[in-house]
Q: What sequence folds into this?
């Protein structure tokens, strides 16, 4: 069991005007923990994750209420200076589309170096640190790759660069929001394996956001299932996958394509049956 909570969310509500994106949820992420938030598109996963580092647009566009604590500290009471340290330095994010997160006109090495300089202004040998980071995420010839531009790399390699950038600031929590959704299945597997490896070697926590039940069990110990802004089920991955309780969870699990079963077609979720 995780020793201390890194993140504690209580009664979190997120509204965009009249749209209630998140309707009062509680969850926590411990130290050395791995949690997946699963739900279909629009269920409120990403906005919940963004709220942890106060990344949502300010009012009046978006109203956040309830409490979000990082190691007991109220994230919504933090000063601007404290927030800058929290973002990236303690909670880092990677997103679905690495190509849109990378700046096309700078080399990948220089973009990681910028993140390192921001969080470690004392660091003397930034280039060496960046090369080590590229090596850690399985990029071959990291010395040469430092000087590559994003378009010279495949989508999988670009996502590795994003992971290197996120890790270069030694975060306590990595939030991975659909990190493999834009990638081919074989590359997906490699990225999940990479995340498992760095999580273990660094003792870092991971919050994985995905609509895909098929990828969670390898990386995550616990799972939270979100449906229309609410948490409908939670538990250990091993137990929820074996014995889902909520009809929505069962419906989501039915959507996992099974590679060896050609007779099985994807079935749409029948919402009338969930109520
Ligand atoms: N910038 C925004 N402006 C207005 N509404 C938004 C915005 N971002 C998210 N929403 C609303 O919040 C809901 C949940 O979004 P999101 O967390 O992105 O879903 P998920 O990640 O589960 O697909 C969306 O259905 C949408 O109505
Ligand atoms: Mg999302």
A:
């Amino acid at each position: 069991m995780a020793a201390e909570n890194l993140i504690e969310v209580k009664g979190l509500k997120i509204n965009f005007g009249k749209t209630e994106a998140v309707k009062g949820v509680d969850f926590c992420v411990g130290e050395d923990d791995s949690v997946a938030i699963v739900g279909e598109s629009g269920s409120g996963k990403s906005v919940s994750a963004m709220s942890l580092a106060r990344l949502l647009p300010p009012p009046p566009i978006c109203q956040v209420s309830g409490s979000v604590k990082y190691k007991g500290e109220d994230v919504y009471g933090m000063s601007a200076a404290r927030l800058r340290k929290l973002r990236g330095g303690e909670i880092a994010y990677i997103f679905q589309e690495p190509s849109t997160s990378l700046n096309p006109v700078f080399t990948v090495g220089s973009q990681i170096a910028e993140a390192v300089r921001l969080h470690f202004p004392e660091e003397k040998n930034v280039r060496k640190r960046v090369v080590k980071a590229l090596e850690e995420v399985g990029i071959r010839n990291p010395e040469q790759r430092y000087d590559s531009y994003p378009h010279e790399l495949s989508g999988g390699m670009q996502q590795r660069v994003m992971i290197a950038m996120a890790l270069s600031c030694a975060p306590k929590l990595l939030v991975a929001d659909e990190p493999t959704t834009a990638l081919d299945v074989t590359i997906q597997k490699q990225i999940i394996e990479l995340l498992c490896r760095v999580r273990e070697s660094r003792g870092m926590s991971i919050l994985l956001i995905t609509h895909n039940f098929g990828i969670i069990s390898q990386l995550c110990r616990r799972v939270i299932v979100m449906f229309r802004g609410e948490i409908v089920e939670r538990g250990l991955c091993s137990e929820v996958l074996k014995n889902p309780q909520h009809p929505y969870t069962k419906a989501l699990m039915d959507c996992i394509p099974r590679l060896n079963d050609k007779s099985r077609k994807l079935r749409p979720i029948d919402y009338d049956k969930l109520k």
